[in-house]
Design a protein that fits this description.
single chain; 359 residues; alpha/beta; FAD/NAD(P)-binding domain; 2 domains; 27% helix
Length: 359
């Protein structure tokens, strides 16, 4: 097996990886980006068809290239995918698609990566992936009757995938609520299981939102106030990582208007059917959609840098292994780290650290 060496390898060619590539290019640092998908932007293309971003186009551009849309509009997931592909082409970023990294280790002072029979070494590695890699499904899912269609939030694309009859969406976060609306609008009796995570008190596309949400909250509070450098930001980080975010676009009245029934969390299976907390009779359903979260999917990292599946890092820098970095994780620096705008700042910081390591 031949070995290919690079000064810096970026794992992941989404918005985080491309942002890192842009800033490494600005620093005149040599690098390559490895991405598992067939095309740049495919991570967005593979999500459900009705999805659009929660942030307006004003905050959806990567460094050096504004999003080509009216600043108050909300891009669709396909528009975001095409933008990322155009971004990589415009700045001639060296993205190698179809290369899935399967392991990361360190030997003799260099990082070693294996990918489909190929081996790479690097002085620096940036893991530029989100934590939504592997759907988390409860063990009792296997007890559901075989005739019940089961999907997870990562598999779901459109209502045509749903089986006959009623739909139970398990998990009431943003994804669960939006997918439940999809199912209800397609004519399915729909139940949404789980606690209410809270919701924004105004429409994100309204006039009030443009003044308060977009400029004050997104533009200032989420980016400059709620950071790991402020006491309020550090408290917010613990809450956000443990409980997730409130509903951004959907309001409880939207679910009521669509005929969706809110039910307690699912606790098990009886007779092959879903059983809810406090319930005596299981639900008769044709489809269960698991929106119960994701595991980070970093098991391929063979270095002892993970706690609870997440890396020990400070602003994306892993002190235990000089040269190893992470970008794209929730709240690496601020609430906005999960947003397109924030990931650009995090990428710039990491690229600067890489440049500082060169003689």
């Amino acid at each position: 097996m031949t070995t290919e060496h690079h000064h810096t390898i970026v794992v992941g060619g989404g918005q985080a990886g491309l942002s890192v590539g842009y800033h490494l290019r600005q620093q005149r640092e040599p690098f390559v980006i490895l991405d598992a998908h067939a095309r740049v932007g495919d991570a967005w293309r593979r999500r459900w068809e009705s999805l659009s971003l929660f942030t307006p186009a004003r905050y959806d551009g990567l460094p050096g290239m504004p999003f080509p849309m009216a600043v108050h509009g909300f891009p669709t997931k396909n528009a975001m995918a095409d933008y990322l592909e155009a971004y990589a082409a415009r700045f001639e970023l060296p993205v190698r698609t179809g290369v899935r990294v399967e392991s990361l280790d360190r030997r003799d002072g260099r990082f070693e990566l294996s990918a489909g029979g190929r081996r790479f070494t690097a002085d620096n590695v940036v893991v530029a992936m989100s934590v939504w890699q592997q759907a988390r499904v409860p063990a009792f899912a296997r007890e559901l009757a075989p005739e019940i269609t089961q999907l997870n939030a990562g598999d779901y694309r459109r209502p045509a995938q749903l089986g006959q009859g009623a739909v139970l969406v398990v998990g009431a976060g943003n994804s669960g609520a939006e997918i439940a609306l999809d199912a209800a609008r397609a004519g399915h009796t729909t139940w949404l299981s789980g606690r209410h995570p809270g919701h924004l008190p105004f429409q994100i596309g309204g006039v009030l939102a443009r003044l308060v949400l977009q400029r004050l909250i997104l533009g200032f509070v989420f980016h400059h106030v709620l950071t790991i450098r402020t006491p309020l930001g550090r408290r917010m980080r613990k809450t956000a990582l443990a409980q997730g975010m409130p509903w951004i676009r959907i309001k409880p009245r939207d679910l009521t208007a669509a005929g969706i029934t809110r039910v307690p969390r699912m606790t098990g299976v009886r007779g092959g059917l879903p059983l809810l907390e406090g319930g005596e009779r299981p639900l008769e359903v044709g489809t269960v959609i698991w929106c119960t979260g994701f595991d980070p999917g970093f098991s391929w990292i063979r270095l002892p840098v993970l706690d609870g599946g997440l890396p020990r890092e400070t602003r994306g820098v892993v002190a235990e292994h000089p040269g190893l970095y992470f970008v794209g994780l929730p709240f690496i620096y601020a609430v906005s780290s999960t947003m397109v705008r924030g990931v650009g700042r995090d990428a710039e910081y990491v690229a600067g650290k890489i440049a500082a390591r060169r003689p």
